[in-house]
Design brief:
The chain is mainly β. The chain is built from two helices and 36 strands. A hairpin with a 6-residue loop joins β17 and β18. The radius of gyration is 25 Å and the shape is globular.
Length: 385
């Protein structure tokens, strides 16, 4: 009888045994090849820890900035968290250390070896070169006053005003003709569907004209209610501080620095990653106390997720600079379209979402809760949604 009681007392500890794994930067001693994953012998990657983790286990991530693609697949009842509230950042950018040379005036250029679709200088987001101009620094980029307007009614010489595929510019707001720009080949962010905005290529325009043609939007989406637009996608639009342009063919990056001086030596980095953490076919996963810079997470086909105490800054950005302008940005997502990809019974709690180009958060599934979260400066284009 005593033996039987002894066995019952210790059986739970055998069945529900928990392990803790530690991850640290290589510069702090992290090593996947020789280390054991303990606090004094940490792994270098979270994926290494995940490969060993079972139900009930926890991965503690030591302080630092991580450039990793974390994949949580077919896992249950595990926790990923910073260790002892140390600051852990998942960074979706790569530093640009190539040499800058003068292109023209205050504009400088450098050649990249991989594409980027968002640019930061000293951790401040740069504006994709555009007309009319707008800025993040004064928040004008979030204001409709920084968009040009179209004329939807009949005027002299244009009995139909604007129509689907043709835009007549209102010069009393922003005068395109006065700029001398030829915008053929540019990308128009076209608010021509009332609450719907579309990205369209400008197919025909002559300098000194206040009208242009563009690839039409769906006929059932077009509206003659009000028209607003701005333009991107041409080096000619690069004309003020804190703007940038990237040529996908030559892989030359152009920058107009804030001080107009050669940016060599500054902290310049470009976005190369969409998701730092991907969760698939997993249940009861907790992600706690991480900072996401220019990256975010995607979860699908899962249940019982908890994302808490996380800060998402610049988590997503359109790829318009890469000429991929017809698709929506890949944003922070609990689930994806299609029932098989749903995420259910999950919680996002005490998180901050800020400075998005695209949705702050998408949720597909049932019985999910967003609790005590704060969202600010969300989606300055609201296009292709």
């Amino acid at each position: 009888m005593k033996f039987f009681l002894f066995f019952l007392l210790f059986l739970p500890s055998v069945i529900f045994s928990q392990n803790s794994y530690f991850v640290a930067l290589e510069s702090s001693g992290g090593n996947d090849s020789t280390n054991l994953g303990t606090i004094n012998s940490p792994f270098a990657t979270i994926n290494k820890a995940l490969s060993l983790m079972n139900s009930g286990d926890t991965c503690f991530v030591r302080g630092g900035t991580y450039y990793q693609d974390v994949v949580i697949s077919n896992k249950n009842n595990i926790v990923l968290t910073s260790y002892n509230d140390e600051f852990v950042c998942f960074d979706g950018t790569r530093k640009i250390n190539t040499n800058w040379t003068n292109y023209n005036g205050n504009i400088f250029q450098t050649t990249l070896d991989n594409h980027i679709w968002q640019l930061f200088v000293d951790n401040n987001e740069m504006v994709m070169a555009r007309w009319p101009n707008a800025n993040f620094t004064d928040k004008s980029i979030y204001n409709l006053d920084s968009w040009a307007s179209g004329i939807v009614d009949s005027v002299a010489g244009f009995p139909d005003g604007s129509y689907n595929g043709f835009e007549l510019v209102d010069p009393s707001n922003y005068n395109l003709a006065a700029t001398g720009l030829n915008i053929t080949g540019a990308i128009g962010i076209m608010n021509v569907g009332s609450f719907k905005t579309y990205n369209r290529e400008i197919t025909s325009h002559n300098a000194n004209e206040n009208f242009f043609s563009y690839n039409p939007v769906p006929n059932n989406a077009y509206r003659d209610k009000h028209h607003n637009f701005y333009l991107e996608g041409k080096l000619d639009f690069l004309d003020q501080a804190n703007e940038w342009y990237y040529d996908t063919t030559t892989m030359i990056l152009y920058l107009y620095p804030d001080n107009g001086q050669n940016p060599n030596g500054r902290n310049i980095k470009g976005k190369t990653q969409e998701y730092a953490i991907s969760i698939d076919n997993s249940n009861n996963i907790t992600i706690n106390n991480f900072f996401f810079f220019s990256t975010t997470f995607l979860a699908k086909s899962s249940s019982g997720l908890i994302i808490e105490n996380c800060h998402f800054s610049f988590p997503n950005c359109s790829k318009r600079m890469l000429k991929d302008y017809l698709s929506s940005p890949n944003v922070t997502s609990l689930g994806q379209s299609g029932n098989i990809n749903n995420v259910n019974n999950s919680i996002i709690r005490k998180c901050l979402f800020e400075y998005t180009d695209g949705d702050a958060l998408r949720i597909y599934g049932n019985n999910n809760l967003v609790e005590n979260c704060y969202m600010q400066y969300i989606d300055y284009t609201v296009s292709e949604l």
